[in-house]
Amino acid sequence: MRINGFSGMDIDSMVKELMTAKRAPLDKLNQKKTLMEWQRDSYRELNSKMYEFRNTKLQQTYRQSAALNTQKAIVTGNTDAVRVDATSAANGIPMKISVEALATATKGETDGVGLGYKASQSLAELVKGVKFGTSNSSITEADNKEEYKIKINNGQELTFKGSDSISSVVAKINSASDLKVTATFDELTGKLSIASKTLGSKGEVSIGTLDPAANSLLDVFKTDKTQAFTPVTGTDAIVKINGVELKDPRPESNIITYNGVQMNLLAVTVTRDASNNIISDNPFTISTQSDPQKALDSMKAFVDDYNKMLTLLNTKVGEEKYRSFQPLTDEQRKSMTESDIKLWEEKAKSGLLKNDDILADLVSKMRNIMGENMGQLSNIGITGGKYFEGGKLILDEAKFKEAVLNNPQQVADLFQGTGTGVKDSIFGKLYDDFDKTMDKIATRAGTTKFSGDLNSIYKEESIMGRELKGYNKEISALEKRLTALENRYYKQFTAMETAMSKYQSQASSLSSFFSS
What we know:
Layout: H1 11-22, H2 24-62, E1 71-77, E2 82-86, E3 95-101, E4 105-109, H3 123-128, H4 141-145, E5 147-152, E6 158-161, H5 166-175, E7 181-186, E8 191-199, E9 207-208, H6 217-220, E10 238-241, E11 244-245, E12 255-258, E13 261-265, E14 270-272, E15 278-281, E16 284-290, H7 293-318, H8 330-334, H9 338-349, H10 357-372, H11 374-379, E17 382-384, E18 393-395, H12 397-406, H13 408-416, H14 426-445, H15 463-515
Antiparallel strand pairs: 1-16, 2-13, 3-10, 3-16, 4-8, 5-6, 5-9, 7-8, 10-11, 12-13, 14-15, 17-18
Helix pairs in contact: 1-15, 2-7, 2-14, 2-15, 7-10, 7-12, 10-14, 12-13
């Protein structure tokens, strides 16, 4: 128990003053820890920006062939029968297309258990004939544990329990990518259908089990258990382009590409009579034309994104550091207003990544990529800014538009590359350098290159994570020593107070004795 004030002294204030000097090392440790936490947060914010630039901008937008494609496909006639997309290889040859038949998938289905079953119900309920919405009290634990097997296209045998829902069975089949099939359940008929993902005559659907005596999954969806599951073989598409029928081979898919135009066939264009003879045709015609606007818009967006990223990195690397502005202690905060604290911390957080080696290296690589290609870039209207602008790019829209009209493939190859040269293209090199930089930041700060989430949890086993653990350990040990020291001070002052109280009591007694 702390005793305070017998002698009139403010012991709390005296102990506080004594402890202020002793707490200085603790304050410094806490400041170092706070600075490192701020620095780690800065790395995470930059990692988020890099993730967006690398994934959303480069990978998902600019590296896609459509970004710099100057060809535009125009469909006339039966526009409902097709969706088209002109590639950069489109040669401008007009095509008149008739679709006599679409490619179909090899498909098999059970005879079905009829209306009244929902995909949310279990296999056991199907077997027992329990309709949707009725009591399932007749389903026993043994029924739920009953197993049903199926082997598709010689893949791994799948096993299901009676307690599995129909929807989970369908999902499990569809998620097994090696089976190359798609399963569906029709609640109106109770039929289970299994179709090949590969369209055309080469699609395969073969069903079996390893053990002929095992319960077959197919039997669960049948009313006639003796009915064989006989898939109907898929058919190839029958298409004519400019009067030439596509044969040897026929299209095995409804997505075909000719003369640089990708066509997604949606419907047949012919009408047949009862004898299956063609009586009319409503074909569609595809033509292409050069349209540099999309490529120009893509390049404008890229130059803007590149410049923003470069400016951000240059700012962080060159940001002024105010060494006299350290993180505030709790005591310092008590004597300051909220606005003063905000202004102070803005200064304290400035320059946390000044001259950072990881960021400086990325800036250098970005500028080198552009520098080594500046000859070709200047020919298409892209040049560097003034020396004091730190490597920013400037786009001459008219010159770029002309270049992409005259030689679109050259522009696409420079930025996107082709074949094995994709990684050596400008976008490929930028992607690779940002990927490696994010790896370095992850090693140092404990971030992840697989997410741009600003609330992601840091990995403790990073360089900064281990250093922060060290700070926490030192702080905890020092706090214990300071608490012990503070208690000792209070004990000493308490002893002094007690002694002084006794002395005053004795002095009062003597004074009373001599005055009597």
